[in-house]
Amino acid sequence: MSIDILISEVGPRDGLQSVRSIMPLEAKKAWIAAEAAAGVTEIEVGSFVPAKILPQLADTAEVVAFARTIPGLTVAALVPNLKGAEAAVAAGAHKITLPLSASEAHSLKNLRRTHAQVLEEVRGIVSLIEGLPADRRPRFEGGLSTAFGCTLEGDVPADKVVQLAGQLMAAGCDEVGLSDTTGYANPAQVKGLVRRVRAEVGEHALSGLHLHNTRGLGLANVMAGLEVGITTFDSSLGGLGGCPFAPGASGNIVTEDLVFMLEAMGLRTGIDLPRLIEVRRILAEALPGEALYGFTPEAGLPLGFVPATREANFA
Ligand code: ZN
């Protein structure tokens, strides 16, 4: 079935890295399988960082291996450096994202590397990928984090983001993404930055936004992204998530609310919303005491609501 907007579920990575509890491997598998069964076609299942930094994600290789067995699912993983990329390739990830903090202070704190050092890692990863047989090459995204502002540096100049986007593409990334790691973005800024980055790297090199709901503007920022032609949005089931290295930043956009908004607007996501909402039960059971967010799951679907995805199926 064709879709209008791709929702990339990042809860198993962004969500789990920010909660104290460690979700058992079996629960992660059940979560990923259940979301895929509800129609989610891309899931960022983990991050290849040392277990001593993020013990919550220590089993990422096993999670990738499992997720690869689900037909039609794009299995994405985050990598902090070349070593992480080697592990991701060995595990068989379809897509890898390396975060480059537009704020250099954040980059030093998060990856302990300057911009120049991160770009060097990017070039190493590109060589690694180019050395693989064509059918084993993952898609490689440079994710510009803190693109809309930083809890350490404050304002991040758009010029800096545009320059780094160009450098990531020149280093050999397939695409770049913009991340509001800190929840600082506003809709006008989203439109402006997307337009400026696209003017630098081309329309097809920027298709996705990673937005947080820290200040309640997550869905407003999605609307701004839609208006300038963004077609992929990251979100997290139950709004689990945040950045452990950016104080005060918590909560991705809630996948359930995002699907509701898009489907209500007539945009097909391919996701069965009632089935997606059911998946929250797996999270509630595996992460007792962790807060789950979302207005749509709490309020229920409006009476007579017909999602765009189902209309398309009936047509
Ligand atoms: Zn995030």
What does this structure look like?
With 315 residues, the chain is an alpha/beta fold. The protein has a single domain (6-314), classed as TIM Barrel, CATH 3.20.20. It is built from 14 helices and 8 strands. Strands 1-2-3-4-5-6-7-8 form an 8-stranded parallel β-barrel, surrounded by 7 helices. The longest helix has 16 residues, at 115-130. The N and C termini lie close together (12 Å). The mean pLDDT is 94. It binds zinc ion (ZN). Zinc ion (ZN) binds next to loops. Residues 14, 181, 210, 212, 241, 243, 252 line the site of zinc ion.
Concise synopsis of the structure shown:
By secondary structure, this protein is of the alpha/beta class. 42% of the residues lie in helices and 14% in strands. The chain has one domain: TIM Barrel (Alpha-Beta Barrel).
User: Structural class given helices, strands, pairing?
Assistant: alpha/beta
The best one-word shape is: globular
Strand and helix order: EHHEHEHEHHEHEHEHEHHHHH
Sheet with the most strands: spatial strand order = 1-2-3-4-5-6-7-8
CATH fold name, please?
A: TIM Barrel
CATH architecture: Alpha-Beta Barrel
Count of helical regions = 14
Q: What percent of the residues sit in helical stretches (DSSP H or I)?
A: 40-55%
Q: What's the CATH H-level superfamily name?
A: Aldolase class I
Count of separate structural domains: 1
Rg (CA only): 18 Å
Q: Which runs of at least 5 residues are low in confidence (pLDDT < 50)?
A: none
User: Beta-strand level of the residues, as a percent range?
Assistant: 5-15%
- In the CATH scheme, the class would be Alpha Beta
Largest pleated sheet:
8 strands, parallel, barrel
**Mean pLDDT, nearest integer?**
94
Strand segment tally: 8
List the ions, cofactors and other small molecules found in this model.
Answer: zinc ion
**Amino- and carboxy-terminal Cα gap:** 12 Å
